[in-house]
Design goal:
heterodimer; A: 262 residues; alpha+beta; Immunoglobulin-like; six-stranded mixed beta sheet; 29% strand; elongated; B: 206 residues; mainly alpha; Rna Polymerase Sigma Factor, Chain: A; Arc Repressor Mutant, subunit A; 2 domains; 62% helix; disordered N terminus
Amino acid sequence: MVSGSDGLDPRVSDLVQREIDGANTKTESAELHDVVKRDPLARRTLEEFSGLARGLDGLASVPPPAEMKRAVMREITTRSQPKRRSEGGILAWLWPGRGPALRYAWIVVMAVGLGLVVTYWRTLNHIDVDAGSVSGTLVPAAGDEGPTERTIDTQGVTGTMRTVDDAAGFGIALDLSGSGSLRVVFDFDPAVARFSGIEGGAPEAVQAGDGRVRIPAVSGRPVTARFERLGGAGITLGVRLERAETVLQEWTIKFPRRQVQR
Amino acid sequence: MTLDAQGPPRGTEGVGATNFPEAGLYREADDAELAKACREGDQRACEALFDKHQRRIYNVALRMARNREDARDITQNVFTKVFANLGSYDPRFKFGAWIARIALNESLNFIQARRPQEQVDERWPSDERDPGAVAGTGELRRVLEAALMTLSMDYRLVVILRHFMELTYTEMASILEIPEKTVKSRLFTARQMLRETLTRQGVQAW
């Protein structure tokens, strides 16, 4: 219930507000109109707020620029176009029109190449984590040495937290499972970094404020929070895992200095 | 931002089944039907969704960013995200509330990321008039617009969500993550402040 205005009974004041928001039941509406018939102050208040509400409704009529629709439609159409292949397609490139001997040699070359790529990829991404040796502060590897990952197992929440730091910016990748309304809060100095968005997760539920970002942690929906450096200085990122208003665990993560690419 | 697993609508002619063979039916279809058709690749359904919501979203962005160019960029980003994430829209809930949440987050992120020197277009709203504004309401509109922009963000947000996006108390509470009674209280206070400003300037809204 809202408090009364201009000496109006708080109950009537509340009914007036609910009436202009279309939230009154039929009974409440009838009750208000009954009061309005008898009470000039209530009638004037209802008229004033109704007029104000109509005025506010009318403000939402500034026409958007005409070119906006074309830009958006072009964007989604571009994203939806299948990528063009060169003439003959990728198979023609992988399977050159040569004799049988050359084709077998080509298969061997491709297999060895694929094996090398897979081995290199696994080397890049395989990290042994000794969860017991990590306490409180997580310092990611610098530059191209790859990400740092730790396992989370606290108060019914399990999963992984991994730092990312590349040309696209720095951030934290989370893959958590647990009951209740979980969220992760990031604190940073807005003078040296800014939030640039999330990958995965639920983008519509992100709350970003001045130096603080809250994102929901949904089981089975990995999410990466990305930040951008505003200078070359090292960054300290506070990360807090919460269930409702309870802090389950928190970390301070230091990202080293890095050349900002413009 | 990565796209959801279903990706953006394909947008090519003839792709995806459509239930709206006549142009008029697109206008009459409800948002959930349009969202489903758009997700399945019906380009005209996507356009119908855009047409239906673009003005509201642009006006929300305009009152948040106070700058027409930023409002345009925010609106474009909102719709790009909307179309990319249609797979995560739950049709049991109002489409308007879902898109409002995205618009709100996008606007707040945009404002936060904006450099100080780019803060606001000081001419807004004084030289921006809706050519369709009803004659005789011009003064009320100008004063109300200016008064709205003097409200702090907490109060301005509830007014925008209620009067521009037509959300209920429950929907606003969910988006703003505050109790319903706080929504009502802020809305009432905001309206009181606006009414007082109008009265002070001798403008009647009734």
